[in-house]
Amino acid sequence: MTSNLLRSVPTLLLAAVPLLPLPASAAVASHTEVRRDPVVFVHGWNSDGSTWQSMAKRFRADGWPADHLDQWTYDTTRSNATTAARLADEIDRVLNLTGASRVDIVTHSMGALSSRYYLKNLGGSSKVDAWVSLGGPNHGTATAHWCGGASCVEMRPGSDFLNNLNSGDETPGSPRYATWGSPCDIVISPKNSVALSGALNTTTACLGHSELHADPTVYEQVRTHVR
Fold first, then answer.
1. Are 65 and 94 in contact (CB under 8 A)?
2. What are the residue boundaries of the structural domains of the chain, listed by start?
3. N or C: which terminus of the chain has fewer CB atoms within 10 Å of its end residue's CB?
């Protein structure tokens, strides 16, 4: 009898301790915490990562951690295939830094080409969840005849680079592809160059080429696509 009573003492003591609720903030965090993919921004020709300031600021305001927003800068005079290899290294760096398994890629203009090369030819499709092209010369643009260097030659309609990139499936693998093109974008000619077979293709309001990554409506649509 005594031994049974002694064994029951710990249970009795535990039963007498009131169960305190978790702090409200902890309870809410446990239910609302969202793990977001890092976003790697890929700018266009003759530009750099600072072109994404407006869009990155909006992503931060909507809950993306600062270390999940990579405004990458690269040498735009190099071949897009060379840039794609550098992009592969950059995405691996971001994945290691954040512990994420996949990234989202948001591109402007020529940035679409190196990132598509990465997805199609360098095994990138397994590391990318969503891909975005804002005013990308996906089938070439006549304005590239006005600039020189390897990357400009590759942007010209009918280039070997574009013919190879667009052969077969234009949206390979599992990433969710989306494009945005403006009817008032005078940099992309012809206008239908942006859209890709197999992607979600959106025509924006009358926006200039450099307005696509700063426009709030385009941002909201991009955010919805990548989340």
1. no
2. 37-226
3. N
Of all helices (H) and strands (E), which one includes residue 129?
Answer: strand 128-134
Stretch (H or E) spanning 42: strand 39-42
CB 151 within 8 A of CB 78: yes
Asked if the 37-226 domain carries CATH number 3.40.50.1820, the reply is yes
Query: For residues 122 and 85, is the Cβ–Cβ distance under 8 A?
Result: yes
pTM as predicted: 0.86
Q: What is the tens place of the pLDDT at every residue in 129-188?
A: 999 999 999 999 999 999 999 999 999 999 999 999 999 999 999 999 999 999 999 999
CA atoms within 13 A of residue 215's CA, in its CB half-sphere: 19
Tokens 């915490």 appear where? Answer: 33
Please give the DSSP secondary-structure letter assigned to residue 217: H
Distance set, CA 65 to CA 29, 61, 71, 171, 173 (Å): 15, 9, 13, 28, 27
**Taking the CA of residue 181 as centre, how many other CA atoms within 13 Å lie in the half-sphere pointing to its CB?**
22
